[in-house]
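Justification of computing resources. Each target in the renewal requires a structure prediction run like the one illustrated here; the chain below, 419 residues long, is used simply to show the kind of job we budget for.
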Amino acid sequence: MSKFIVEGGYKLAGEIRVQGSKNAAFPVLAASILADGPCTIENVPEITDVRNFLEILKFLGAKYLFKNHTVIIDTRALRGRNLPKKLVGRLRGSVLLAGPMLARFGKVDLAHPGGDAIGARPIDVHLDGFRKLRARIEESGRTIRVTAPKGLRGGKIVLGVTSVTGTENLILAGCLVKGVTEIRLADVSPHVQDLCRFLARMGARIQGIGTPNLKITGVRRLRPAKYTLCSDEIEAVTFCVAAAATKSSLTVSGVELLNLDAPLAALERMNVNFETVKDKIKIKPPRGKYRSVRIITGVSPQLLTDEQPLLAVLATQAYGVTRIHDWIYEGRQGYLKALKKMGARVEFNDAHRARVYGPSSLHGAEIKTPDLRAGASILIAALVARGKSIIYNAEIIDRGYERLDERLNSLGAKIKRVG
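Resulting structure tokens:
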């Protein structure tokens, strides 16, 4: 187990470039299963979760080279093996292998996927969609078997919940089916659109990209393709909040502004001083007091559940009462308990709602990271706090951020990794 030792109170300065999207990497790499040759994926973040995903593909028979944020992957020798429980159990994104494996081999056995401990994340949306494509579902303990003995066939799927990975899995399953697949109430997140564009480059026929109504006309084969992932909007918000909370001047570059409307609007409501220029966000020292707001999560293009823990750290420095409502996950409040330990004034209404009273003078503390986004939020709070903080389970942060400690140190932070 590694940990970060953080000396708070230092300003950030300079420019930092956002890496490629973690959430786009998984479905695009999964889509390579459907190609009849090697694919090249650029702007891939070099993080633990991506490496684990690639190891699962290697276990299944894929060959890959991962260097300088580029993955060259060849899945032609892939075998229809059971997915390894050890890797699948710690990586939520592994569920995205079900759709392409089902489409290619007509069957897939998988364990219930893992990931962060932020509450229940059932995969009923995926399984119900597979049933609409004529698949059979059998569950035995922690294992799920999905089969299509007569092949998948197109159908109309209305998602019971607008699920990101559910949408992606059904897109992946639908590209090679016989007939037409319609997905209604589909998620429209940037990484869902990235998947669709990559598949289109491979020869898939997808209409309605960027809308909640997708129409996929099945094709017989998909060719290999080269693609560059979109930038990570969550990482962009992370650096913007880190700069604003420490009242620093920082330029965050390599961003895709169209994907950041909701969090940038929230920063504006909180009276953060910033400007946007092309692919850059320039955070400046505040011109006045930060203001409290309501932070309510939703589905894209609304404020995302991964963004609210970051904004809540800034709320500890804002005047007034910030009300937080994350209706998606009931276990997302672990970071608020950590902030409270650091001196934040927090009241909990229930498992989904809380209030943050500001501004608060934060102080150093010893914290165990409960999940990925909580870890990043606690790290930002430690940058703001007086004195020394020790953040345990730093490897959880490594799952989603590439060398976050080193990159923040290059901007003036004082973070030491131990272990």
